[in-house]
Design goal:
By secondary structure, the protein is of the alpha+beta class. It has helices at 7-21, 90-93, 102-115, 125-133, 135-149, 152-157; strands at residues 25-28, 34-40, 51-57, 68-71, 181-183, 194-196. Strands 1-2-3-4 form a 4-stranded antiparallel sheet. Residues 189-204 have low confidence and may be disordered.
């Protein structure tokens, strides 16, 4: 078997490992060719408070063929299909070369797309039309959409259950404060054997009037 046949498999491993070591959180499936990446909106844009998960599938020909990526939770952008999450990005769809790495997508290409939408080549015509007609109104609706659909909880919930982060364990029950509740064998009548005690007790001091010199 030619060594060239090992290139795609080896490049997948290398690029995925680089992505795992980068700032993004990656959720792997049982197959290295499919995974999910947590992505935070770039600072200084209306997307900066949002979190998204992108579903990534590497074709057998990767890196000679571009990866397939799509937003798993909803995003409102002229160049992203709001329903399917498909991305209109030339560097992925048309001009991809083996020189690019997965890390470039999340560090450079996607942040640039969110910073500089192209309403002339839309996948979301309504977002593109509003951006051209009313940029201020566009930002207002975008921020509302981010608040409604791009919380971290909603983003992580879009990852299939076996591959997403494990659910948080419930906090252990709090132990009762010492001296607050004591269960007695023979409690006072009418309290069913439970007496409420104060954590602190104060001794009463005998009052002594002050002497006043005349």
């Amino acid at each position: 078997m030619s060594s060239n046949n090992h290139i795609p498999s080896r490049r997948k491993e290398i690029d995925v490992m680089k992505l795992l070591k980068a700032s993004q959180k990656v959720y792997l499936s049982k197959n290295i060719s499919e995974f999910w990446v947590e992505f935070v909106g770039p600072e200084g844009t209306p997307y900066e408070d949002g979190t998204w998960v992108l579903h990534v599938v590497l074709p057998p020909e990767y890196p000679f063929k571009s990866p397939s990526i799509g937003f798993a939770n909803r995003i409102w952008h002229p160049n992203i299909d709001e329903t399917s999450g498909s991305v209109c990005l030339d560097v992925i769809n048309q001009t991809w070369t083996p020189m690019y790495e997965l890390k470039n997508i999340f560090d450079v290409f996607l942040p640039q797309l969110l910073r500089y939408p192209n309403p002339e080549d839309p996948l979301n015509p309504s977002a593109a039309a509003l951006l051209q007609r009313d940029p201020t109104g566009y930002v207002t609706i975008l921020q509302e959409h981010v608040a409604a659909h791009a919380t971290r909880a909603k983003a992580l919930a879009s990852i299939p259950t076996p591959y997403g982060p494990p659910p948080k364990a419930p906090p252990p029950p709090k132990a009762p404060s010492e001296g607050v509740v004591e269960r007695l064998e023979h409690g006072p009548a009418g309290i069913d054997g439970v007496a409420i005690c104060q954590s602190h007790q104060w001794e009463e001091e005998e009052y002594t009037p002050e002497e006043i010199e005349l």
